[in-house]
Amino acid sequence: MNNRIEVDYVHHLSLLEGNEFQAEIEKLLNNTFWDFQTIIGDSGDGGTDGLYDGNTILCCCYGLKTVGKKLSDADKKQKVIIKFTNDIKRVLEMRTSGRGKNKKYEHSENNILGDILGERIKIKQLTLIVNYYDNSLIGRLNDIFDELKQKSQLNFISPKCTLVIHGPEKIYSLCNITENDLVRLKYKKILSILEMAVSADRPVDLLEQSDLKEYEEKIKYLEENFCDTEEKRQTLVDYKNDNLEAWCRYIIFMQKLKKEAPRIFEKAIIQGNNVLKEMKNLIFGKTLDPYEKIEKFEEKLKDKWVKIFDNNENDKIQDIINMDCANLIGTCPLDWRDNRKKSA
Q: What integer pLDDT is reported at residue 92 of this predicted model?
């Protein structure tokens, strides 16, 4: 691995577990292979998580859970082997009992997979995708696959069917991964918080009365200190009505961010203060039209959030900018709250 995107993406992909890992793999394969087909259902998928290449390549995913568990490398490999052995058995319609010379093999019908594939399609490659990869898995899982294949009726796979194991590095090289994919994965928690804030129905109802009171107090402060003409007062009235909901969404976003991603929250506060210092009194100054100044302010906010996202562009940043601009409505001096108290 010799570039920043690859190193970062592989690292963050390896940290995903369970359904989150599977969902990310399905998204990548869907973006890379035009005919990728997701198979939905934990118990009703017949042992497959997806198909592509004319439904001849079958994928099984496993996001090994390690958070909060003290697992050695040997433990991790054993869990991967057990999970994928069960997947292989389902695809090959096999059930085993006993060990060594006493090991028995029985046919175990898989009607669900038969319904998914139909009568004509035969699997030519079984692809196992896992968040923890070790080269020793290749030989061990292929030995298991070959052993079971010899006993299988081969109802769903070609006699020449092969098995491959992909870890995060191979997935990176196989799929069309962009910098936006890295941002989405790296800031998965932030973007999920943003989605919650943006999509909240009636965000006003989700806030405490004190949050709404501050909005009214800020509007009043702006009116008393910056609106010395009727035109400016009307601009403030219009802006107040247009941005109340966005204000609420931003407060919800920042409250959740403070709780679930405190490092990013602190970074946002610092960058926001820097913007305010630079753009003090921007909207209600005298050199530009108020709405032109809002546009300029939004440009600065974009710079702020791009920095927070480690200089990575993302199509979700505009949603944050809209809310952030509403939160900083009127671009009061940074100490407007203290000034308000002094004049009260």
A: 96
